[in-house]
């Protein structure tokens, strides 16, 4: 049972190992040794088959901690850029709104002036009509006398 477990472990390790890490033989030769020579093949593979990486005694430096968003200058710059862009967009919208309001007010004022002028023309026309009627009425009275 131990021999089978060792064989499976060594075979999987051999198949997953990078080709650059094999010491003397190639992958096919090592697979053959592991499978054809029970117990000794897997032990040979584990002992001398591949170059071992030696663990470092001290880590070179602790991994850099990610910065909090309010400490990250790149993030803060990005926020400022977005804020500036939004401020410009808002200013443009306000200017467009003021322009539209002025156009609407000018149009309404022109319509009000036109309506007032029309009303004044009608009043003057009615006044002339009344004057004409009054003159016509006085002329009729003069003729009847």
TrEMBL record:
Ranges where the Cardiolipin synthase N-terminal domain occurs: 5-49
Keywords for this protein: Cell membrane, Membrane, Transmembrane, Transmembrane helix
Membrane topology: Multi-pass membrane protein
InterPro entries for this protein: CLS_N
Predominant place of localization: membrane
Cellular localisation: Cell membrane
Name of this protein: Cardiolipin synthase N-terminal domain-containing protein
């Amino acid at each position: 049972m131990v021999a089978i477990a060792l064989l499976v472990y060594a075979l999987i390790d051999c198949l997953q190992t990078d080709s650059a890490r094999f010491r003397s033989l190639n992958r096919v030769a090592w697979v053959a040794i592991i499978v054809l020579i029970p117990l000794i093949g897997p032990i040979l593979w584990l002992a001398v088959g591949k170059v071992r990486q030696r663990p470092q005694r001290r880590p070179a430096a602790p991994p850099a901690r990610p910065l909090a968003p309010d400490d990250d200058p790149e993030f803060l710059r990005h926020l400022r850029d977005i804020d500036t862009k939004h401020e410009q967009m808002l200013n443009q919208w306000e200017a467009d709104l003021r322009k539209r309001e002025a156009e609407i007010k000018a149009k309404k004022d022109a319509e009000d002036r036109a309506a007032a002028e029309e009303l004044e023309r009608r009043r003057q026309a009615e006044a002339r009509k009344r004057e004409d009627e009054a003159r016509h009425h006085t002329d009729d009275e003069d003729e009847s006398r």
